[in-house]
Structures are given as structure tokens and as C-alpha cells.
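Would you be willing to look carefully at the protein I have copied below?

:::
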Amino acid sequence: MIDDIKKNGLVLLGCGKMGSAMLAGWLDQGIPASSVWVIDPNPSDWLKQTQVHINADIPSAPSVVLVAVKPQMMADALPTLQALGGSDTLFISVAAGTPIAAFEAAFGATSRIVRAMPNTPAAIGQGITAIVGNAAAGDTGLELAGALLAAVGQVVRLDSESQMDAVTGVSGSGPAYVFHLIETLAAAGQAQGLPADLALALAKSTVSGAGALAMAADESPGQLRVNVTSPGGTTQAALEVLMDDDDGFPALLNRAVAAATARSKALAHG
């Protein structure tokens, strides 16, 4: 992978928080700065220090073009890449709500296209990215995309693009749900008499530690929950509220993920 990119180059269209996280991971992996071209109207001070090519003429046949602009900027961004359509260049998009069909319309159906949905923990190398490709991308394209996106965390392949909206609802938007859990857990602790800074420290560390344990443990999250729930104890008292069929986590998160999935579908269809 690195040899091909060294030879032909990699183009990053858009270098905001997600693009910067990926670029940092690639440079750490050994992709030379001289093989990377970044197109961004407002390059950050950090980007300027990386020694990559910034807003310069891109190679005529780069190995990869990764599109990381916001969806609302897509209409202006895609025409700048049309000359690369139908070539061996692999296009990877991390833009939410923009389907593969939009890229095939811009570049041609024979273009190699992979759609990806990362999430914000990618900024610290702890993200998870779901990918799916068109027929032209094939396994080779998915392998290359997976290798690049692994720089910011785990990568999983989807069976079909139709699953991408649900992925958006679970992992794409999911970090915000967890941040809100931390907020509300801290506020609940404060309501029970804890100082605000202590309640927040307890909430942040508890969520972080529980997540790390869930990743490291062989048991399922359900079994981990059972392990810390003594009959008639404090945890059971709380879970009787949280697991209520009408007002608890199951019903609430079902509605939340369904709403995010529906909005993703609406964005994808204009």
C-alpha cells in the first residue's frame, strides 16, 4: 500500500478534524509527506507544518483520493476531481449522507468508489469505521481503504450500502449519545449532593472505564451488567429504572437511533 502511494500519491480533499486525524495516522504509518496532496481552503497551522503539498496541482493519477469535505460542500468539491473518474484511482468518501450513486454520477460508474462512516473518537485513534464499496472497487479497493482508515481505529465491512444509515445512527452519531450520558450522569450525582467537579470526574472515568472493560472482556455487555448487579442491591435499584420497558434505555435508545437513521436516509435522498 505505502509503495503504491509513494509512487502515485494520495490526495486528501478537506482537512478538518477528521481529515487531520487521518493524515496524522498516515504520516505515523510511514506514508511520506511528499506523497500527500491536501486541498483545503483554510489550512490549519498544524497542516502547514506537516510538509505535505497544500493546495498545489494534484498528480494526474493518484492511488487514492479521500473526500473529507462536509456534505454541503460536496457539489462544489466533486467537479474538481472529475478528470480522475474511470481511472485506477480509488475514491474514498467519509462524508455523511452522500451515497455511492452520487460519486458514480460525478465520476462514472466504472470509477472505484468506497463509502466510509468513521466517528469522532478517530481523533485519538479510537474510532470505528464502516466501509462499503461499489462493484468497481472490489476486494482490492476495500482492502486499501481499510488499511488507510485503520490509521484511526477499527474498520468493519458492511454487506450492503443500505446498512450505512443504521451505522450512522449507532456509531456515527453514537459518541454524542455517550457524551450526553456523561453530562446527565454527572448532573444526577450533583443533584444527590456531590460537588460538580467531583461528579463530572466520577462520570467521565466510569463511562471510560466501563467502555474499556467491555472491549477487553470475553463476556458480553449483558453478562458484565449481571456481574455487577447484586440481588436487591443499589445497582439493581437503578437498573429497574433504566431498563423500564416504556421509559428506560431500551425504548429511549431505540427511538434515538431510529431518528438518526431516518435523518441519514433523508440526507442521502436530498
